Amino acid sequence: MKTELRLRNSKTSFSMISKRIIPCLDIKDGRTVKGVNFVDLKDAGDPVALASSYSKRGADELVFLDISATEEGRGAFEPLIYEVAKTLSIPFTVGGGINSTDKVSSLLQKGVDKVAINSSAVKRPELVSEIANKFGSQCLVVAIDAKCINGTWRVHTVGGKQSEALELFSWAEEVTKRGAGELLFTSMDHDGTKTGFAIEALAELSSRVNIPIIASGGAGTTEHFSEVFLKSNVDAALAASVFHFSEIKIADLKDYLRSKKILVR
Question: Any idea what the CATH number is for the domain that residue 135 is in?
Answer without folding.
Answer: 3.20.20.70
